[in-house]
Amino acid sequence: MKYDFDKIIDRRNTDSLKWDVSENELPMWVADMDFTVAPPIAEELKKRLEHGIFGYCSIPERWNNAICEWWKKRHNFNMEKNYLIFCTGVVPAISSIVRKLTTAGENVLIQTPVYNIFFNSILNNGRNVSESQLCYQNGCYSIDFDKLEEKLSDPQTSLMLLCNPHNPIGKIWDSKTLAKIGHLALKHNVTVVSDEIHCDITDPGKEYTPFASVNEQCRMNSITCISPTKAFNIPGLQTAAVYIPNSVLRHKVWRALNTDEIAEANAFAVDAAVAAFTKGEEWLDELRKYIYKNKLTAASFIDKNIPDIKLVSSDATYLLWLDCRKLCENTSNLQTFLRRETGLYVSQGAQYGKTGSAFIRLNIACPRKILNDGLSRLYDGINRFKKIKSLK
Asked: Is the pTM of this model over 0.70?
């Protein structure tokens, strides 16, 4: 490989949210990669730094062009550049959209288990969470469309947050599934907000389908949230975009983002995003191969050494969703035990919805030496956990 993803960077004492842990702990929880950014991004940031002045910034047309060209080349989707709006992050955008497009006491639908911050964006704004639980059978997830329509048909439900690809299960929704979601949403006058932040972290040979690309129904009844932050590991630079073909929705969202003051770029946000989308392709493709090898390494280790845990098959993200139902019904105690006894810090499944209670999420976007350390700690911790359970 041209890029060294095996290199270990010490992130302790750098004000890192992920690595602000005790010396003996190994954090494999939050979706934050332990790789240095693509060299073209670093080079652009150095140029910007050397300029020496960091005043207020406008959004240049090259930002719009970079996004449109990337989606056309990588995802076979022709975006109209004037339908893009800059924002400081996908989560701030979602929270702002929830406030603007719904009223207090209305329902926002999510398909659980799902990204835990969706709950925050809904509940913190005085809206109600409407959970449409995904079906889990034989180690795979799918949608029960009868239950989904039942939830969508509630007159109090006005917005749906779609995760595509789906975090934490790593599911890529196919075009047929997305079309059915789009049909039901429009039928029941529910606007779809599609969070597609993980779209560029797919297994080699696997491709995701943008919700807005499926058909005209999906296109005109949706808001798509995108960002280079997950794929290129630059979440601290606060750079994202929303894509909205519907002019009425676009005006409302534009008003929302500006009212909440999250539509202004910091001095590095635009240059980083443009560099990622115009010069980062080679780096990203090597990264995807490396992460996929990590996934295979983890799958083999768990299958051979930890039979009480089942790895849920996935085609996207660098997050593993581990089925621990043979060990416990709720992984809250297991997660605490692993961290206390082995230092391994993972995410407990309950925070992604009650259907995730018996699962844990493991971040494998790290050098292989760190991954192997984490897997060894997981093996050791599970064995200790089982011994304690047997003594009770």
From this structure: yes
